Amino acid sequence: MYFGLSEDQEFFQENIKKFLDDNASVDVIRKIATDHPEHQKDIQEGLVSLGINSLLVPEEYGGLGLNILFATAVSQALGSGIAPSAFIGSYVMAPIAILNGGSEDQKKLYLPDIASGKISFAVGFSEFIGARENCEIIFKNGKLNGRSIFVLDSNDASHIMVADKDGKIYIASMNSEGLSKNHLTTVDKTRSFSEVIFKEVEVELLEKTKDALNPIQKSIDAGRVALAADTLGAAQEMINKAVEYSKERKQFGRVIGSFQAVKHMCAEMTADLEPCYAMVWHAAHCIDEDEEDSRFMSCHSKAHTSEVGKVIAKKATEVHGGMGFTDLLGLHYWFKRIGVNRQLLGAPEIIREEAAKIQKLI
Fold it and tell me: Who contacts 290 (Cβ-Cβ below 8 Å, separation ≥6)?
C-alpha cells in the first residue's frame, strides 16, 4: 500500500518550489529581511497567481475546492523555500474558520473574495490558545476591545479574524475605526507578525461560533498541521544543504563528507525526519476524513516536528562549521523559521498537554 502525496499534489508542490527558486533566492530574502518589502509583495502576488489563496475555498465559491492534505503539501514547499509570504493564517486558518463557523451569507461574502485575491485575513487566536496578561479580548454591545498579539499574516491584510477565550471568532476590516496595528519584530524576517489593539471596534461575529468550539478548533488544527509541514520542508532543505556542503568542503585534503562523524550526523538527521512525512500527511488526512482523531494528530504532528526540526537545525548548522553562522550562506533563515514555527499556535509543551487531555490522561 502506497501512502504519500498524489501526482497532482506533487506537481503543485514542484511548481511552488520552482517559483521560489526563480524568485526568492537567499539574496532576495536578505533584501526583504533588511527592509525591502517591494520584493516580498512581488513574491506574494506570484504565489497567489499560482492559486495558494484558493486551495481550500470550495468550487461553488470560486475556489479550487481542494483539501487540507493539498494545503499541507503546499506549506511544505513554502517552508522549503522560506517563502516570505502569507499562507497559514490567510489561506488555511481563515477559510477553514469561515467554512465551519460562518453562516451561508458570511460564506458568500468572504470566500469568493479570498479565492479571487481581493481580500486576505490576518489571524489572531492567541487569546484562545494561550491567554496573556493585558491581552484579553472583550466583546460588548457590538464592539470589540482588547489586544491580540502574534497576529499571523498581518502585512497587507485587508481583514482580521480574532478569537476570544471562549472560541468565538470576530471579523473586522483592518481599516476599522479604533483598530491599530504595531509590527512585532521576531527572529524570522520572512513573515509578518503584529500586535493589534481594538478600541470600540465594530466587528462581525461568525454565526456558528456562538455556542460551538468546533470551528476554531478545526482552524487551529489545520494551522498546526500546516506549520508542521512548513517545518518539515525547512528541515529537509537544511539537510540537503548540509549534505551538499559536506561533499564540497575539504579539510586535511579530504571532503568532510568522507569523515565518519559527519556521515553519522547527516544520516541521523535523515532518519529523524523521514517518519515525520507520514505523520504530517496522516494528520492532514484526519482533518478531512477522521474528525475523531484530527485534533490529537494535529497536536502530535506539530509537537513532534517542532522537536525534530530544532535538532536538525542545530546539526545542519554544525555540519557547515563556522560558515553556518554567516549571513553570506543564509542558513540562519531556515534555522530561525523552524524556531518560530515551534512557538506559533502553541509550543510543544502546551500542545502535549492538550493531547494528554484529549486522551484523558490528565
Answer: none
Is 1's pLDDT higher than 70? Answer: no
Instruction: Report the pLDDT averaged over residues 182-204.
Output: 91
Same-domain pairing of 126 and 78: no
Q: Crossing angle of helices 260-289/291-319, nearest 10°?
A: 160
CA distance 312 to 89: 25
Tally of domains in the chain: 3
d(CA 261, CA 264): 5
pLDDT in tens, 219-239: 999 999 999 999 999 999 999
CATH number at residue 197: 2.40.110.10
Alpha carbon of 120 to those of 6, 48, 170: distances in Å? 28, 11, 15
Question: Is residue 280 domain-shared with residue 301, that is, in the same domain?
Answer: yes
- Kindly state the average pLDDT of the residues 114-132: 90
| Domain end among 181, 209, 237 | 209
pTM for this model (two decimals): 0.94
The answer to whether residue 328 sits within a structural domain is yes
The stretch 168-185 carries a mean pLDDT of 92
Measured between alpha carbons, how far is 219 from 168 in angstroms, rounded to an integer? 12
**What domain range is 60 assigned to?**
7-116
116, 145, 171: which is the final residue of a domain? 116
Report the distance separating Cα 276 and Cα 239, nearest Å: 14
Q: Is 128 exposed, middle or buried (0-12, 13-18, 19+ CB in 10 A)?
A: buried
CA torsion through residues 261, 266, 269, 275, sign: negative
Alpha carbons 309 and 299: distance in angstroms, whole number: 15
pLDDT of residue 284: 94
Q: What value, to the nearest 5°, has the Cα angle with vertex 334 and ends 313 and 227?
A: 90
Long-range contacts of 313-317 (CB under 8 A, 24+ apart): 313/235, 313/238, 313/338, 313/339, 315/242, 315/265, 315/268, 315/269, 316/238, 316/239, 316/241, 316/242, 316/269, 317/238
